Amino acid sequence: MRRIAVAASDGAVAAHFGRCQQYLLVTADQGQVQDKTTIDNPGHRPGFLPQFLAERDVDCIIAGGMGPRAQQMFQNMDIEVVVGAVGPVDDVIEQYLSAELETGEDLCDH
Questions:
Q1: Rounded distance between C-alpha atoms, residue 15 and residue 8, angstroms
Q2: 77-106 pLDDT per residue, tens
Q3: Which of 25, 21, 16 shows the shortest CA–CA distance to 79?
């Protein structure tokens, strides 16, 4: 069982993890989506969001971009970080689960 969080804005993967509109939480088993829940971004504060998502049993975060401090915090919690993802959220989830997600450069500029 996997629990994936996707930083999203207007139905697409958000360019910046901390400044997205919401997080789509996806529970998947054997490559199949079992459940999806959308939660509003509770606010961008240094160090807060990695813990917030870890408390929701997330084991992977997908975003267009993410700062190095947040990436390190997720890695310290054994949460996989995928940056450089672009496109509609549902497509990105499907590609990730089928191991076909192609990512580009980290879109975060800091």
A1: 8
A2: 999 999 999 999 999 999 999 999 999 877
A3: 25
pLDDT band (50, 70, 90) for residue 44: confident
Q: Tell me how crowded residue 65 is: count the other CB atoms within 10 A of its CB.
A: 25
Query: Which tokens is 55 given?
Result: 């408390």
Burial class (CB in 10 A: 0-12, 13-18, 19+), 32: exposed
What are the boundaries of each domain within the chain? 2-36+46-97
Q: In three state form, how does the secondary structure of the chain look? A: CEEEEEEEECCEECCCHHHCCEEEEEEEECCEEEEEEEEECCCCCCCHHHHHHHCCCCCEEEECCCCHHHHHHHHHCCCEEEECCCCEHHHHHHHHHCCCCCCCCCCCCC
CATH 3.10.450.50 holds for 2-36+46-97: no
